[in-house]
Structures are given as structure tokens and as C-alpha cells.
Amino acid sequence: MRMTTAFFLALLVAGTSGHAETSQQRAKRVLDECLAALGGPKFLAMRDRVEEGRAYSFYRDKLTGLSIATISTQYLPPQQGKLAVREREDFGKKKDYGSVLFTESEAYQVTFRGAQPLPQERFDRYRETTLHDIFYILRQRMQESGMYLESRGADVLDNRPVEIVDITDADNRTTTVYIDQTNHVPVRQVFYRRDPVTKERDEEVTLFTKYRDAGGVLWPFTIERDRNGEKILQIFSESVRVNQGLADSLFALPAGVRMLKRN
Predict the structure, then answer these.
(1) d(CA 128, CA 131)
(2) For position 213, which CATH number holds?
(3) Which end of the chain has fewer CB atoms at under 10 Å, N or C?
């Protein structure tokens, strides 16, 4: 009887250990569940997106700007380690307060005076923020070679159970994402970036809340960004629409526009 009991216990332990997830397997499962919750095939088929609402900017947690904003995004064919998206930000109810264009390699501010290239640091920060963005990663980057996933396990964030996953690319760029265990959507992401001027390491945190359906894609209608513990941006979307057939020309400089010098 003792030998039989010991034998079955050994089989049970072996079977349990054989089915235990590795850190990498758990991370992949959590991200697969997240992708499915966001819309699965419809999320991956998202070609463009238009977000309309209010954008608030802050400095040292004090409000410094408020805009009625329309943010248009167009996805391009993915490329290893390269930015494959275009973005246009229009300001004002009638989109008459100027625009900001982000292409794959440059950024411009466009007003009635003309088009002015934005400082390189501004574009570099946009590029790094985008490459670290969990929604961009899931849509554009998961098939890149050298992507490494690692689970940090479970925790509690703001009284909700979450799964924590580190996503590291071939350039050693790491994003830590916190995913709600109940509805499987991202609620927080963290990455670090070296300030080009001070050379100090900045902690960039983004919070995602108020998810709603946007044509089969689940999208956060409230987004907050913090830097080193201070709020720098809040976006409150009133509407989000996907696959609007946005033309390439929307993300290009107007024909004949006057080109201004970079500051």
C-alpha cells in the first residue's frame, strides 16, 4: 500500500509539473487573451482609427492647455524595429486651430503660416512612446524577430487583480503591461527612457480606462500619461471609429504649403 501510494503521488507530481506554465508561456497566454478581448481578428485588421474628444496637457500636475482634438491614425505594413504608423492631430471644433503631423520619420506643425518641422527630440519621444505602446505592439510588433515575453506573475493594482508582463524587443526596449485578470484589457503600462538633455532616466506611465466598443474593437476612451509621477496628458474621447478609409493625403503636407525653418 505504501509503495502504491508513493507511486501515485510521484505520478501526480510529475503530471502537475509537466503541465505547469513557464514564465514565457504564461506571458504569451495572457497577451493572447488580451488580444482576443480587444477584438482579435478585427483588432488586427484595424487599418486606421479616428478619435475625437478633449485633450488636456499638464506641467507639474497643473493644467497648462485644453484642446478639442481629432486624432487620426493610419497603420502601415509592419517593419522590423521601425515605425509603421502615421498620425495626424487636428485642433479645434472645426479643425481650424492647426495640425500636427507625425510621419514615419518626421513631425510637422501645420498652421495658416505654413509647415514647420518639429524639433527632433519631439519626434524621437513620439517614436519611442509609440514603439512602447501596448496597442501598437499587439497590432504591429508581435511577429518581430527577437521579441521576448516574460510574466511577472499576478498582483493587485487599484483593488483589481492584474497579470504583469514584460515585453522586450530586439533592441532591448522593454514595456511592462498590467492586464486586468477579469476582462483581460490593459490598464497600465510602464517604460523608461533616457532624457536627451539631463541624461536622467524618465519613467513613462500610461493608464487606460473606460473601454468601449468601437466597431468591433474594444478601445480605452480615457487615457492618462504620467512622467516621473507627474501627470502630463489626459485624453477623453467622445467617439472612436475604426476603418474609416482614411486617405494617404490626410497624413501628408498640403500641396504647395510654405515650409518654415525648424526652431
Answers:
(1) 5
(2) 2.50.20.10
(3) N
Tell me the DSSP string of 78-119: -BTTB--EEEEEEESTTS-S-EEEE-SS-EEEEETTEEEEPP
pLDDT of residue 17: 42
Strand runs labelled E in 181-255: 186-194, 201-213, 218-227, 230-242
In contact, 229 and 60? CB cutoff 8 Å:
no
What's the number of domains the chain is made of?
1
Distance from the Cα of residue 79 to its chain's centroid: 17
Q: What is the rounded CA–CA span in Å between residue 49 and residue 216? A: 12
| Per-residue cell: 254 | 498640403
Residue 95 sits in which domain range?
A: 21-251
pLDDT digits (tens, 9 = 90+) for 119-141: 999 999 999 999 999 999 999 99
198 Cβ contact list (under 8 Å, min separation 6): none
